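Quick check before the chapter quiz. The format below is the same one you will see on the exam, so make sure you can read both the input and the output lines.
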Amino acid sequence: MEILETLDIDNCAPASLALGTFDGLHLGHRAVLESALDSEYSPQVFTFKKSPSGAPALITQEDKAAELSGMGIERVYSMDFHRLRDMEAEGFARDILLRRLNARRICCGEDFRFGRGARGNVELLSRLCKEYGAQLIVVPPVLDGGEKVSSTRIRRAVAEGDISTASRLLGRPFGFTLEVIHGNHIGTGLGTPTINQALPGDLTLPRFGVYAAWCETESGRYYGVCNIGVKPTVGSDRVLAETWMPEFDGDLYGRRVRVELMDFIRPERKFSSLDQLKEEIRRNAIRAKEITGAL
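Here is the expected output.
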């Protein structure tokens, strides 16, 4: 899959273009993407690196690219919103989407807005697509429990630690693929060596606390107990995901590991001693194994 961060391109092949922020690739987003894939034209995506609203994403850029590639998307235009925010809606649709990107089929949600002041809508797109002989597919919202699946709804669930709801609406486990960094090595001294991953500031933060998790490493898939937060017992100057995989033995520093949260176990709290912390970690690991069903 090709990822472009510029619109300075020529001679684009006819495209089936999905439009959206796609800041979570949740079930609603996937409905739009699948519509773009159901076409004779090259399936492509026009999106933004960050949500125009400034809201944190539900997926890292790395995982977003991997998911889109896995779906069969051939090209992604990943743009900086501020470079295009002042462009008039009609000019953006006509000059960028239909002419420069050669969109022959455009797919979007019914509430998709674009252009300066978000004045562009599906009615404008419909008129211009007819003018240029392109097809417009307006995808209705996906509902869950009678309520629209949205990034706002999923962010709320993640922030509350309601991982099962978040994962259901995403259509996959909520998680992240990040580099393993060095920590203070206290876990090693306790006999519970952990991997530390710094959560990026533009990712929706889960409720601070301990979660049952699955971890994907180069050597296989392992259950784990993951603490999200600032490690109040020993202290941290940033938000970390600290995960112990009881059945893993190896060095992962500098490697990228995917951690998928499965269920919330308990809130983050401070312990009076490292021995108490050690005992609690082991209890949490037993619970994590039960939740994940690891054999």
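If your answer matched, good. The mean pLDDT is 91.
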